[in-house]
Amino acid sequence: MKLLRLEYLNLALLIGAFASSVFFNGLDIRFFALCFVLLLGWQFSIGISVYTHGCRHGNLLLPISILMFWLWLAITIPFSPVFYLSMVNFWWVGIFPLVFLLYSFATDKNQLWRRLFPALVIIVAGLCLYALYQMYVLHTAPSATFFNKNSLAALINLLLLPLLASLFTSDNKPHPYPQLISVFLFILVLSLINSRGALLAFSISLIVLLLLVRRQLGKKRLLLASVIMMSAFLTAQLLFEYAPSLTGTGTVDRLLTLQDTHGAGHSRFVIWQPAWDLFLQHRWTGIGLGTYFLAIPPSLHPNDHSAGFYVHNDYLQIALETGIPGILLLVLILLATLFRLLTVLRTAVAQQFHRPEFVSLFAALLTLAIHSAVTYNLYVMPVMLLAGLLLGRFNQLADRLAGKPGVVHHPARLFRPGLYYLLLAVVTITLASYFLGIGVAHHYQHKAYQLMARNQLEAAHRAFYLAQTLAPRVDSAYYADADLLRKSALLLADRPELSQGLLAEAQTLLDRAEQLNPLRPQTPYIRGQVLEQDSPDAQAEIIQAYHTALKRNPRFLPARLALARYLIAADQPEQAQQLLWQGLGYSYRQLSPAYLELLEMNLAMANQMGNDDLATRLTSELVKSRLDYASRLSARGRSSIINPY
């Protein structure tokens, strides 16, 4: 009975971790922290079971290759210019090796997988239904809880092929209607997402699956599954007519654009070239795990329309952030997986009924490997958590199909119970404290922003202070607090001593933020704002602060606008005009109030100069941008489930 309760506890912890990761969109660290705390609970439970029952392992090729990759990620952290960011990304990207290793150590793998897989299908099916709701009710992109619909497509691909394998190979069982419905829904949403990379990856992997398990295919089920897939695909083509502005052309037309390699990949090539150039400057240790979005803005092409957070090629981004050893070790994992597949298929001697599932897991992981060449799956937590589970199951079945008994290790032979459980508890509590610290710190920082919006400045300062105490290496709480103190000093202009004290404290906070993160443009921008209040005659220092922010990110409009206003006030209109005009030379992914202000200031300059043609063009652009911004705000408010800010 106790063992059964432990199995259900492990299942609940793992499902909870996956569900939490689905809501982590890269911003809200609270879901990131919750996911890892639940995984640590699973790790603690596994640790107890391992001491009681021992740990069995088979072939060590995959575990060792994955451990080597994860170890290199850890080695690169001290070389990173932003320590805390690389530490967070060590776990963010490392959720893949972590989950693989935890699953490999679990003593109840078979029972866990039998109950876990249907639960994962239900969760992803729910995301698919929400994506359809977004598409046809809210009239927004079918991305579910993700920022990018390609991430949802990658998640669907990972579950779709194992589902299909179970349908292909069991003619004698009753019709599994839940599976049929899930396959239909997954194919439907995958087609509507219309991601060329995801569709191509699925097609190639499906062919691999069919070729490798052709002898185990049940003809009736193969026909049934084919009908379901074709029906879902045709339904998607019919539904395209009802949301053409969101989906563009149909799936077939979309895939045909791949014939023009240059045209199809142009948006990616614009991103990849500066990333490659930056990689060549940091070949061995990389620029620091997770720091791409801070390091790349000065090198981005002016016509780059991406958000600038990812390279949209996991292999290039890992090479850029962790150096040549990082990409070689990642490729080693792929080669080790392929080697295990070929070896097992050639030498398997027992339990051939597991072969379709085994191959389908490889095919699912193959979709990830292919798709990751044009997107950033490695940095999407639920995708990599699921990939870690699939690879763990793949390795488990590889050992079983190879027919070689594993080796059992008993920690009881090395540790007394008291010492073992003490070490297990210390490791778990230490790691949990870290994740809870950054999660609660994010909560207080979020609360501080809300208090600022309500003009409760003193309470907001206390919340920022708590965030700094709980996560002392995170720079955002320091520069945000400095900006808060600057605004508070404005309200105390009639009390100069108190105002000066607040500005001095703001400078101290900015020094700390700069020390923690020398790549962030917000810090020098806020320093310029503080200097304008504290020492308005320190023209060189103020201009230098704003220029530093723009050097770090030329698209950082608050600094560009602030510097232009300062130059105008300092009777330097020519420099201000040039600065504003340069701002129009960049592509911006999203409209913002700052971009609207950029257009307004350029329009004012054009009118002042008497340039009627430019003024007419800017007026038209401003009217259009205002309308687009209003409609985007409306759509964002309708579609948001979780809005951390």
Brief descriptors of the model:
645 residues; mainly alpha
Structure description:
The chain has 645 residues and is an all-alpha fold. Helices cover 75% and strands 1% of the residues. A two-stranded antiparallel ribbon has the order 1-2. The longest helix has 37 residues.
Please give a quick description of this structure.
With 645 residues, the protein is mostly helical. Helix content is 75%, strand content 1%. A two-stranded antiparallel ribbon has the order 1-2.
Structural topology:
Blueprint: H1 2-22, H2 29-53, E1 55-57, H3 61-76, H4 83-105, H5 109-138, H6 149-168, H7 177-193, H8 196-212, H9 219-239, H10 244-247, H11 251-256, H12 261-281, H13 292-295, H14 314-347, H15 355-371, H16 381-402, E2 407-409, H17 417-453, H18 457-470, H19 476-491, H20 496-516, H21 522-534, H22 539-552, H23 557-569, H24 573-583, H25 593-609, H26 612-639
Helix pairs in contact: 1-2, 1-5, 1-16, 2-4, 2-17, 3-4, 3-14, 4-16, 5-6, 5-7, 6-7, 6-8, 6-15, 6-16, 7-9, 8-15, 12-14, 14-15, 14-16, 15-16, 17-18, 18-19, 19-20, 19-21, 20-21, 21-22, 22-23, 23-24, 24-25, 25-26
